[in-house]
Amino acid sequence: MSDDATTPRLLLLDGHSLAYRAYFALPVENFSTATGQHTNAVFGFTSMLINMLRDEKPTHIVVSFDLSRKSFRTEKYADYKAGRSETPAPFQGQVSLIQEVLEALRIPVVTKENYEADDVIATLATQARAAGMEVIISSGDRDAFQLAEEHVTILYPVRGVSEVWRMTPEAIEAKYFVPPSRYRDKAALVGESSDNLTGVPGVGDKTAAKWINEYGGLDGVIANVDKIKGKAGESLRAHLAEVMRNYELNALIRDLELPLRPEDVRWHGWDREAVHQLFDALEFRVLRERLYSYLEAVEPEAESGFDLAGQVLRAGEVAGWLTEHAAAAPVGLAVTGSFGRGTGQVTGIAVATGSGPAAWFDPAALDETDERAVAAWLADPARPKVIHDAKPALLAFRAHGWAFDGVTTDTALAAYLAKPDQRGYDLTDLALRYLKRELKVDAPDDGQLALSFDGDGQDTAAEEGVMLRARATLDLADVLTAELSRDGGASQRLLAEVELPLAVVLAEMESKGIAADTGYLSELEATFAAEVKAAQQAAHEVHGREFNLGSPKQLQEILFVERNLPKTRKIKSGYTTDADSLQDLFAKTEDPLLAHLLRYRDMAKLKSTVDGLLKSVSDDGRIHTTFNQTVAATGRLSSTDPNLQNIPIRTEEGRRIRRAFVVGGEFEQLMTADYSQIEMRIMAHLSKDEALIAAFNSGADFHAATASSVFHVELDQVTADQRRKIKAMNYGLAYGLSSFGLSNQLTISNDEAKALMEEYFQRFGGVRDYLKAVVLQAGKDGYTATILGRRRYLPDLSSDNRQRREMAERMALNAPIQGSAADIIKVAMLKVDAALRSSGLSSRMLLQVHDELVFEVAPGERDALEELVRREMGGAYPLSVPLEVSVGTGRDWNGADH
DNA sequence: ATTAAGACGTA
DNA sequence: CGTACGTCTTAATG
């Protein structure tokens, strides 16, 4: 290549058209696996891809696929691309295999509803040119020729899968006698049979070019249509309408909204293991050799040549550095300090540029100019920043008085969306997994990292480490963006439109915290402590000696050996002493020790909850939990330090703890707003079960309504016991409840539970069909997806181990339901937050408890807030059943509950 | 000092 | 033999 080696080169592929070319280029009968899967198109496509990688050496790659045969063009012209024969059966299914190849090669795929791949390519090519990239497009569709220009080359496959024409502007002009900018004009006149666009009969490339060049384009030809002589002229005048139609339809759209930009698709190499497995399955032996010999050759190059020049900035140097290095292009940002409890303190900030230098500075050692520059830079939404775990940084910046905006990607959130089942999303681990780099400054010098720091002779290892993290974050963002883009945009949208903005909302909530009545908490603590002591004494007295009630091990000895009570359910260490089992034992034996024991457990648990809360009250008299956004595999949030999502509510004594969460000084009340039966509503929506949908739309008490159906009685004849049983079923369904589990929970026989479930599904068969279908589909895809496309991968669905497999099946049926509920309340939180801002209300959102939001109501805003919250939560996402919201207010959390 | 298991609170 | 979490306690490791 004659181009400057540092110019990024973007390879854009039209997936469908190349696959189709490959299919017809290679005899289908010669390419199939032992299992009968046809692979000629996969083979041909992959072969072309490898050739292009070898010959073009792109630094960035993306493939676009048509989503369907329908597009805005078929809407305008019903016969667009009509007349194409049905997709041949052996071609079916090969596209998804090609997508698997791309996935293994970590090449992102982008699609756009209602548009063709060529439009996506035209948009990306346009953006890439604006960014100064060299562009190579490969498409089997000649429409792409209109995109050729300086630095934009079209690779047009001809004859088989090994030869392409390099269609530069010069080549196009030589072949068609018009420049690429006039290619559309020519195509409109001549027609394009593959698109079923007829042109002017009798007019070919030469005549069309003659006219276009004579009259200065199609406009001129049309303006002078009466001057054109001869048969061809007559023909043109008779077919002007078609020409205009063609011209309108063959224009490629260059300004689509896409989930990624050309800069995001930097290619960082392939997933070796996945390629191995896939090529084994496809029986691509030779191709694997070719791929590997090419990839092995470029790999070292890709891994090295990474020179991070770092610099520790002193006071007075920061403003200038930022202006010079951190303007338009995204930079990586890494922050050190202490974080948590809704605040934080920054001790160091590192900024790394994509290919240039990195810098570190101490936020406490800035001069006035620097301080202003850093504040403006951090707050500027037009200065793109990439960071790993933005929320703590945001809180620490806020504590320093800095606003923070312009975060285009959070690599922790991106990694979570890509694989939500991971244990953690530590930057070091992600760098190793996705970048294959050890994130250590003093890593062995194996050419992976060339660090040349300007350290002034000082020991700047810590600062270098932070700079390296900033740089790794930036690189990781590229890889993860590509990773997330392989599903056609859903994950990217979740990141950009849900998780990223939600992090900001959560930061606000954590920063505010919720007021706690510490005096009352202390009283509670004393009360529970006394109860614990009393229960403990009573238990010791009954048994006749002292022992540790908190030790399940000692308890087992006492219950099952010394007191010779009946054995309970087996666990690893013997027999369980959990509350359910102890209840059963008590019912059977009436051993008074059990009652004291249960009482002890209850009180000890409550006491420890209160202890924990007391310890976590901040100086401002409020409790600031931390909401974790990357923990729950289903997409839910979790709450830690303290966990405010498991504050007792079921028992009266437990609810006493809720009274400790009170309204803050300047405010009037607490308000809770929760979704009623959101998971069942999602099941009704997803399953489309008409009876279930009707039960919701009836407006009656949902559990009673379903019970009335199941037991064939009028709504007002449903007994409390019938309602209780069906309520248990309703709740259990989304968890994969078995008849055994149901019988256990309701203390009825297994037969009775079976009959109950049978009768339930008799009435709500759509639900069973849906649940079965979800598991089946998940088995095929390898993952489940929520209404917003949030994925959860469940490899255990194909496990040989029955227990693991069945566990995965229950996860598969639960994940879309629980996850969709999580999606909905997240969207609701964003909407509520936005509405609160625009309404000018002073009330604020404090907590989220999965299907409930807790607010602090400013004086006089109760009604307005309720209206706002009902509107935004109720309208968060349209389902085929209403999203019902119930609202309550009170001076404390218990009083606000309903 | 860290880890695992058991128990139990919430949705 | 019901999903998703976090925390506390004990008891066993280092």
Describe the structure concisely for a colleague.
Its EC number is 2.7.7.7. The protein contains 35 helices and 28 strands.
Query: What kind of sheet is the major sheet?
Result: 7 strands, mixed
Overall strand count: 28
Number of helical segments? 35
- Radius of gyration, Cα only, in angstroms? 33 Å
CATH fold-type name of the largest domain: Nucleotidyltransferase, domain 5
Q: Any guess at the CATH architecture of the largest domain? A: 2-Layer Sandwich
Name of the CATH class of the largest domain: Alpha Beta
Describe the global form.
globular
Structural class: alpha/beta
CA(first)-CA(last) distance: 71 Å
User: Regions with pLDDT < 50 over 5+ consecutive residues?
Assistant: 300-306, 442-451
The level of helicity is: 40-55%
At the fourth CATH level, what is the homologous superfamily of the largest domain? Ribonuclease H-like superfamily/Ribonuclease H
Integer tally of domains: 4
Strand order of the largest sheet: 14-13-10-11-12-9-15
Strand fraction equals 5-15%
Average predicted local confidence, pLDDT: 89
Domain DNA-directed DNA polymerase family A palm: 654-861
InterPro entries: 3'-5'_exonuclease_dom, 5-3_exonucl_a-hlix_arch_N, 5-3_exonuclease, 5-3_exonuclease_C_sf, DNA-dir_DNA_pol_A_palm_dom, DNA/RNA_pol_sf, DNA_polI_exonuclease, DNA_polI_H3TH
Family: Belongs to the DNA polymerase type-A family.
EC number: 2.7.7.7
